[in-house]
Amino acid sequence: MEYKYTVLTNTMLGALMASINMNIVLITLPTIFRGLGINPFAPGEFTYLLWILMGYSIVLASILVTFGRISDSYGRVKMYSYGFIIFTIASILLSIVPGNSGNNGALALILLRILQAVGAGFLMVNSTALLTDAFPPNERGKALGINQISFVVGSLLGIILGGFLAGYDWHLVFVVNVPFAIAGTYWSLAKLRETSEKIKVPIDIPGNLTLAGSMILISLGLTYTLEPYKNFQTGWSNPWVIAALVIGVLLMIAFIIIERKVKNPLFNLSLFKIRPFLFGNLSLLLSSLGRGAVMFLVVIWLQGIYLPLHGFTYTQTPLWAGIYMLPMLVGTVIFGPIGGMLTDKYGARPFATIGMIISAIGFYLLTLLPYNFNLLEFEVILFIIGIGGGLFASPNTTAIMNAVSSRDRASANGMRMTINNITSTISMAIFFSITITVFSQDLPSAIYKTTISLGLPQQLAVYLSKIPPSGALFGAFLGINPITVIPPNILSTIPASVISKISSNSFFPNIIGPSFIKGLDISLFIAIIMSILATVFSWLMGERYVHEEHGAISKDSIGNLRKEEIPNGK
Q: Which of 338, 416, 457, 469 has its CA 20 to 30 A from that of 153?
């Protein structure tokens, strides 16, 4: 096998493993919590839910640039292989966490997921860099597009395997990663070789500390905005959240000042002087801001409203929500490689731009749907959004990675992935807060009026109307009927005929549907604005540009170059 395809198959295996891991955990969270013996709505338990959901991305956001610089200095293949080894060890340890171990088991899961994130960090910063090293400029778009397929296929497998394995034993959710991790470890150690120059420089300790501290504090602050504080439905007024965000921003300013003065900076800020790198990352930032949490809210829409209304039990909704999201994955699978191949021939700018325009159109079409929508229309819109994401991702990545020299590729990719991770967290905090704020204005009165009309005692109507909106939405996400929060001693006083009405699948979705859709529409319109701005920045990336050791290849020269005509034979 030609070496570049050896690299491609190995990075595809890593992407497949990472995406299976990400989606299978989301799908099986209800099973995991039941297996640990935890009620996610008991006092204090919401924090464990947040950390299992967000801890992985918090760690990734804080380590990727550092891992990129380490890999540039000590060898990308070596660090990439270490990533597989660490991920394998973490997966095996996760699979033996004892059942019914309560909060101790949840804490063990969180810590081991953090260890998994360390392994994933080495894989993520180096996979794109290794592909860029191995493939010539006129084939990089195609390689990145094909690599994207494995991530989407892994998402599909994670959904299916999660739904299947959840019915047996939640430990199997982590066991399923192990064969892929072992195979990837062997394949990388046996077949990959260093092809890039190692740039050994002293470690920029102040830069590392300020960047990591900034990313950790900002991510933590944004994560805890999702947790209610006192009488508020979100945590934006929590002094600890405010302090974390302020100190995090100050540390980021300090990082920029330090990097401009030190001799061997952690990240070469001068890369932002390169037009495709600057505008490519700006468009990625805006795309992630607009897309990240909106898709999470769409999943809640499915699990908490649409599927229960159409006869699915709450325990079935996580799996079927994943299945109903498949058209978006299919659109990405089809158009990701197409976008990559067209980028190799015509450049990244037109296709990244078109991708964001299509995404904006898809988000607008979602705003036209009622909460109990027509399924065919919904699936077509998701397919359109998938097309937009597929056309944008590979050209955007290709433009960013082509813009930097080989010595900076891992750290540049680390910066790209950090932007993607931190903006996803920001997106979650902003859009979820908007939805909860709008949602909380209507939900209490809607619950109270509906339950009183059914003849429930006023005491119970008041009790149900005080269900935290964030708890109600996360309950729907976890596949838990919010009616289960009623204490058994109160439930026993309610007539059986009334219980059958309030516990039916249609009761709660019809209450929360109208107010949820108001908040979602506001988030979607913000996502549309973000996508339009990303469209502008994608166009501003300019024509083709490839940074090489002996100068840049720009404009329309790449498509006409044979391999031997490219500087350094790259």
A: 416
